[in-house]
Fold this protein.
Amino acid sequence: MNPHIAPVELAKAYRLLNHGPTVLVSASHAGVDNVMAAAWACALDFAPPKVTVVLDKSTKTRALVEAGGRFVLQVPAARQLALTQAVGNMTLADDPDKLEKCGVTLFRIDGETAPLVEGCAAWLACRLVPEPHNQQTYDLFIGEVEAAWSDTRVFAEGHWHFEQAGPGWRSLHHVAGGHYYAIGEPLDGNAGA
Amino acid sequence: MNPHIAPVELAKAYRLLNHGPTVLVSASHAGVDNVMAAAWACALDFAPPKVTVVLDKSTKTRALVEAGGRFVLQVPAARQLALTQAVGNMTLADDPDKLEKCGVTLFRIDGETAPLVEGCAAWLACRLVPEPHNQQTYDLFIGEVEAAWSDTRVFAEGHWHFEQAGPGWRSLHHVAGGHYYAIGEPLDGNAGA
């Protein structure tokens, strides 16, 4: 495993999503792995940490989450822009070689059954909290974060270090149609007006 | 009213939140107005557009949303950093002059009962979609966006123009404890690897 990957304490896991990055959602069931992109993912609680993510009924990843009961949200880095765009626009249902064509390499960690995407900045391994009404009515899924990790070159000691890590490590923030913004410069809200 | 404010067509309203900005939540009931900051707000659907936002039970704004059934999510700009930090750290329950002390000026638009915060980049006026289980269990509120507006100096023709609008117009992305990032530079996901 990449020696830069280290656990993130659960009390600080929300910080991996708090700034609103577009994420990759991965899941596995019965030997089938898949990864999709999702801009509609959000922190939901601090302790235990929970997240929400919207998974359209057309996605194969959703079926894997429903069947397997687990998923991983990961924060892709700017140098994974093409990969992020590709997994968001190709479906495993039509293209069994989706992951290979999109340049996705998966790995497993610490007995987590859901696969993780190599090269990301951070990962949150989630247990699905079943809420059938939300899932059916709103395509809204809730997960409890049971473990989290970061690449310590960009998130360490509970803090993002985008400004030191180089432009390839910036998080991606999708607007629409393949138009993204990278996260930008730090601002200190405690510095006064 | 600020002559730069123009309606955003509902089909494109999700783009105001899609890149994950920290928002201000405003609401009004029985003559009481309030505004809070929320990093945990997210698009939920395209048509009709819906949003989610997490409103802690300790907040006065939540009580106004529950009583009045409406709220506005607005996207503050970087030059509103101090205001955003202030409304997120002061409560109307303890400080009846909160809004004045935080430098918030409110305005009304088009018969919308919830107040809007002057100087923001965009506004989404929402009708609460009552979901008592989500509200009680997860502090999770769903709104249907019934109208949206932007300041056309930074969002026009369905697109953000952060790169032309100047640094004071960048959206704010809170991580924790008053540490924010501004949104950064555009990246084209359709440009190839």
The domain at 5-182 of chain A is CATH 2.30.110.10 (Pnp Oxidase; Chain A). Chain A touches chain B through 56 residues (CB under 8 Å). The mean pLDDT of chain A is 96. Chain A has one domain: 5-182.
